[in-house]
Design brief:
The structure holds 2 protein chains of 2 kinds.
Chain A lengths: L7 H10 L31 H13 L22 H7 L2 H4 L11 H18 L3 E2 L6 H16 L3 E4 L5 H14 L2 E3 L11 H6 L5 E7 L10 H10 L3 E6 L18 E5 L15 E5 L12 E6 L5 E6 L5 H4 L12 H38 L4 E3 L7 E6 L4 H10 L6 E2 H4 L9 E5 L6 H17 L4
Parallel strand pairs in A: 2-3, 2-4, 4-5, 5-6
Antiparallel strand pairs in A: 1-7, 6-7, 8-9, 10-11, 11-13, 12-13
Helix pairs in contact in A: 3-11, 5-11, 6-7, 11-14
Chain B lengths: L41 H4 L36 H12 L22 H7 L2 H4 L11 H18 L3 E3 L5 H18 L6 E5 L5 H8 L3 E5 L9 H7 L4 E7 L11 H10 L3 E5 L19 E3 L20 E3 L11 E4 L5 E4 L21 H37 L17 E3 L10 H10 L6 E2 L9 E3 L7 H19 L19 H6 L11
Parallel strand pairs in B: 2-3, 2-4, 4-5, 5-6
Antiparallel strand pairs in B: 1-7, 6-7, 8-9, 10-12, 11-12
Classes of the chains: A alpha/beta, B alpha/beta.
Chain lengths: 459, 523
Amino acid sequence: MRYLPLTDTDREDMLAKCGATSIDDLFVDVPEVARLDGPIRDLPMHASEMAVERHMKALAKKNLAAETTPFFLGAGAYRHHIPASVDTVISRGEFLTAYTPYQPEIAQGTLQMLFEFQTQVARLYGCAVANASLYDGSTACWEAVAMATRVTKRKRAVLSGALHPHYAQVVKTMAQFTGDEIADAHPAIQPEADLSGLIARIDDETACVVVQYPDILGRPSDLTQIADAAHEKGALLVVVNTEPVALGALKSPGEMGADIVVGEGQALGVGLQFGGPYLGLFAVRDPKHVRQMPGRLCGETVDAEGKRGFVLTLSTREQHIRREKATSNICTNSGLCALAFTTHMTLLGEKGLRQLAAENHRRACLAADRLEKVPGVSLLNNAFFNEFTVMLDGKPAREIVRDLADRGVLGGVSLGRLYPGVEALEHALLVAITETTTEEDIEILANELEAALNLEPAQ
Amino acid sequence: MNAPVTGPNKSGWKPHMEVADATGELITTTGNRALMLEEPLIFEIGKAETTGVDLPEIDEAAPNRMGGFDREEPIGLVGLTEPETVRHYTRLSRQNYGIDLGFFPLGSCTMKHNPRLNEKMARLPGFADIHPLAPQSSVQGALEVIDELATWLKTLTGMPAVAMSPKAGAHGELCGILAIRAAHTAKGNPREVVLVPESAHGTNPATAAFAGYKVDNIPATPEGRVDVDALIERLGPDVAAVMITNPNTCGLFEKDFRTIADAVHDVGGYVYCDGANFNAIVGHVRPGDLGVDAMHINLHKTFSTPHGGGGPGSGPVVFSEALAPFAPLPYVEKDASGDFRIVEEETTDAEHQTFGRMTAFHGQMGMFTRALTYMLSHGADGLKQVAEDAVLNANYILRSLEDILHAPFADSGPCMHEALFGDKDFGGGLSTLDLAKGLIDEGYHPMTVYFPLVVHGAMLVEPTETESKASIDQFITAFRHVTQRALDGDEALKQAPYFAPRRRLDETAAARKPKLAWSEPEA
């Protein structure tokens, strides 16, 4: 077995040192009735690298990779070009095969990277402090709600109807068990988000308002209005962002008054990977809230010789110290994804991120103009960054998406899939455009949409 | 035959090995020491106008449909070109210890070799470049990977169901406890208490408390196992579940697990097993045969997906028949025609009373492909050998150190895949921490220290199966040497490490006045 260095002679020598005559002597504490004889049944035996590679490649071939086809999916996961050096960096064994930096003297690489990452995230979000990452955007969203309930000592969270429905589901799932009250809604299909409707739902019992920016339909909106309304009632504003590239062009949530900003960092450096591992981002605008934050924090300090160094800090919030009184049960962060994100962000820098954002928006405008010309397609959004909603006449968007996939085009995410059973949303299709989308792709989508919509004229 | 074992430096211990200036400090003009290169922060070397990605210049006259929310203020980021970026992170990487570099016996973390085939497979565009919401007909291979991995996990554990979406071990624990709470609630009463042995990982009580349970600690016996009598005594209709790690964090198999499980089931409770230490028993015993109702499996431990400097992890949870209906959304099913489909909508039948959704998408697909590659490589026979070699290596370390180091449970029988020691008899006020830092100078990543809490100055050593005997022998030699220094009260150990990229870091100062982001130096 190519991964097991012990030889049979080694094993004999070592067993002798342990006073054992066979390996079974070391498993004596496993009750005999439960012990298995021989290799476990119904599973294959070991295989060569070549054989395993063949098996996995056959499975991979059954998937339609985004790079091989016109591709327009978003809704919380975005396909951007990842510079080649990102994979070089995250493949370094010293990063890849390290553990949580519990021994900071020999983990300065991970720690300095995290300190830089925290700074980048905080600045992107317009916040004072970001943590060293959480599992993904959806769990970060829940952690923000939980933190808001700790800070305000209130139990009611008001979710915008235009928050990603899977994020809302995660929040509602967790709240069942903590006893928090979650006020949720579906998005109203209209060109602009319903801010006054949302503001009307904030009351004196509200711990936080959770708003996505840009929202699930791709609409940016004025967070300052919501922040003012929330703060007036003593509630916090939690802003969720699922597309960090957007913040290269849009005002940051922090500068519009958000108290906690969370999001999905996948779009920078991480790749689609069928939904995971991704990267939960978490930041607070006011440094006084730091001690209520979940997850790991990396801080600057000095060593015994006075040299600058970095450590994990404020760990008295965490489960390994506080046990049942911890701010969260989270133990890992998403370290390697944070490294991919921060490497990509370092390559981009201020200039590159702004250019990338501008290029995304420019192409999205081209796509919106072109799709609007397709009979039976209308653009819903008044405003958008790189993702917008189109309304389709005739068949439900879910069916159109399947038809397009059969024709080799991954044409977007149907709101019918995200909101099963909600009739008003059945004809809405979310279309995401990035710098990877070519004008030819847009032309193909327009033509295929036209063909698909014409397959069966509107009733 | 075995490689020769190097001993400690024959010239003895020297805190400062080279000539120094008047202050006793070794000085170079750059602060570098040959291959040990200091690296500033990106904010100190990058520029706002520098970028390492070639993108079109911004056309200010281009259409703008962002609704008037354009960013006006600078973000405050800096960029580096590609050569500067690669050098920055390469230099940082060299200040890190990883398994690729050396022995990393961090107890309870299973720092085994990460096979590179796994990395290669995870990067195939068919896995890496597919969207979680892609039409299901276009991702049948991905769903098949999830289904195939699920089959392996169910078969290896002897459990009928598995939830694949939890993102890490602690997230898996949460999944298990939420399913338990949902199952109790479906019967009319969620119950109040979860019993947790005092040797448990901190995540166990944190998880139970999160799910709204009161946590009662169960003591350990002097031999390092759960006190079965105390546990059974505490059982009653208020107990929702017990959470037990098996093998436990003292490195021992809980012999009476089945007795405990039966007693818990008799009062209508459920048994949660923390599967962090599954590497010791994979292929030898199936948790399902021990009466487990739910157990998370850390794919980044037993199944070798890389730890990545602290994640991402992956924590699928296997379930018994009793808990299976409550598993979270989404999950993958195979229909009659052999097609795979994702079930992501709530239904109301008795077989599917899901407690809800734990994460936006389907779990850690990138880890699934790596773990499946690992399993296929080892096969049923190889995985059995994995557990045997991991256990043999740990016992060999235990028996090679028990004469010099306090080994509180050495008489409790063989250990499983990790050996536990304590700091008894150290001289001169030296502690476990000092010994750990001494091991850093010897070229090792230290073992887990001060965990479990039940042993004073605990040192938990987990060698894993991917170390050679020569590597382990050298570690034993070094460990004995540093232990002897601790027993002798060698003052120099208090200042260790001497040879790491940094000397001991001031964690108190870091916490007292937290500096958690870089800021421009004041002019």
